[in-house]
Amino acid sequence: MLLFRVDLSSKSPDNVLKKTNYQNFHENIDRQNHHHPIIMDMYEALNPDPVSHHGWTPVPVDAEAIFQGKPYLHKPHPLLAKHIHFPSEDPIVAKVQDYAKSQLPSPTYNHSMRVFYWATAILKQQFPAHASSLSPSTLALTCLLHDIGTAPHNIHSTRLSFEFQGGIIALNLLQNTLSAPQPQAEGVCEAIIRHQDLGTTGKITFLGQLIQLATVYDNMSTRPYLVSEETKVDVMKEFPRMGWSKCFEKTIREENGLKPWAHTTHLGGEVFPNGVGGNVFMSEFE
């Protein structure tokens, strides 16, 4: 990997850009350029804070506490799908996207993609302070893999609840197969395991809360005003629901039948699947 540094030594009054390799980068900062803003920007870009970059910032698990009893913190404005960048240029994201397409039924894959777009709109418009630091790749990986545990071959392969199975699959894929950074792989795993861990007590990672907000919006349309109507309609055109509400209701009932202890049951054995299947807010798009 090659970088450029600004040589500010007396021998180079014109601040000639010179190539330096990654191994010498830190040495150059410490020795002569450590106060220069260009160098520090480069250093920070290469060494982002893993807590904020991969969504580990602790926030309340209770969304009501975050939104202070209001429908939103900032009124959503139209944000079309073409204006939301999906980070497919990241090779790990590209490989995971191909993997998700091959493993998930089409309605589940489209749901996973919609969740990325809902989450990005919510992130940018409701939590701008986090938007400047959260990795789009980490968000994309979480969205693509959050329901991998519901794939038919996965749901029948274990006694684990699908969120836990999905988290383990994601961790192994990202860390062992694709060599993703540990904070990223574990951040994705944590968020997947807890993406249905709705509650009112305790904390959750910011990434986990963001995925909860986006998945619940798509599945049950809780907090329906978090996303503008224009954004909703446009994203639906890009990634149609394909009968998603009934599809996911069937999956919930299937898992609860196979695994009466499933984590999903904490949302209500009948309340949750009925709420998903009867999602009136999204019915026109089914």
Automatic annotation (TrEMBL):
Pfam families associated with the record: HD (PF01966)
InterPro entries: Cyanamide_hydratase_HD, HD/PDEase_dom, HD_domain
SMART domains referenced in this protein's UniProt entry, alphabetically: HDc (SM00471)
Annotated HD domain residues: 108-220
CDD domains: HDc
PANTHER family: CYANAMIDE HYDRATASE DDI2-RELATED (PTHR35569)
Protein name stated in the entry: Cyanamide hydratase
